[in-house]
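Re: adenosine-5'-diphosphate structure - here you go.
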Amino acid sequence: MAEPVNEFGLIQQIQQQTSVPATGVKLGIGDDAAVLEIPAGRHLVAATDTLNAGVHFPVDTSAFNIGYKCLAVNLSDLAAMGATPHWALLSLSLPGADAVWLKSFTAGFKSLALPFNVALVGGDTTSGPLSISVTALGSIEPGRQLQRCGAQPGDLIVVSGTVGGAARVLDLLHETLLHKTLSADDQNLLDRPQPRVTLGQALVGHASACIDISDGLLADLGHLLQASGCAATLATGALPIPGILADLADEQRWTYQLAGGDDYELLFTLPVNQQVLLKTWSKELDITLSVIGTIEEGEGTRCIAPDGTEFHARKAGFDHFGNES
Ligand code: ADP
Ligand code: MG
């Protein structure tokens, strides 16, 4: 029989199972607040993101993958700023005190916290529908952060990894006709996005603007363009293709690539005279970097198919309080 655990037992379990070598933690879990020492001469960078069951992940997602993803999406936000992650806070709303579920959850969380040296320094534990909110804290040299503004006409538009795979997995999970099970690699496209932290840091001082793709390439590029006061032309034929989209007809594939969310890749703009760096980064960081278009004067995004015609994607991304348009 499982031992009963109370709130403080859960907190203790979280603390024990997520501990990683910490930097700058003057006071961690256990008091009313944490006290952290920001590295000398650097600025604090803060991001927070919530995952709600059934909204941000399918209800049957494994506890390990939920633990991984709640940190991954936050590290992705720090990556998009070019920041170095240091600490995290974790707000957990749990339907029950399930030590077995929690063990798996903390293992997933730690599987990312350890390689990125992120110490969990506090949080909150409450009972309610499953919801996980993480706040990631990092640092950067003053004024060096990558932002959504700053793209200039003539800059190249570059994306890391592949796009559209996570949305395809989500659709396949919803399709009642899915008899074959997804491979672990395919499932990971949705459940285990790789936060591009080292890429973000490499881009500092080079990229003119940057954003991470959470809501869909077109939607997030739209935010970057709006902040930069520019337009974009994309080549659909240049969009990087995940294996899971390889068999689809062009238009269906482009729709996933342009409108599918949850990939957590970096989308950045780069002055043409910096283009040689793409090869270096790609090699050193072992990451695919694809030039998918250019920044132009004006507003909006035009997607051009390989035959030269314009492609109009069906929907522009995910909006929690809107309709798909
Ligand atoms: P308070 O009532 O003062 O908010 P809590 O009892 O909620 O304190 O938390 C006690 C300590 O445990 C605090 O240091 C808090 O940051 C930490 N804590 C609570 N829940 C979590 C969690 N899910 N992850 C990490 N730390 C937690
Ligand atoms: Mg509290």
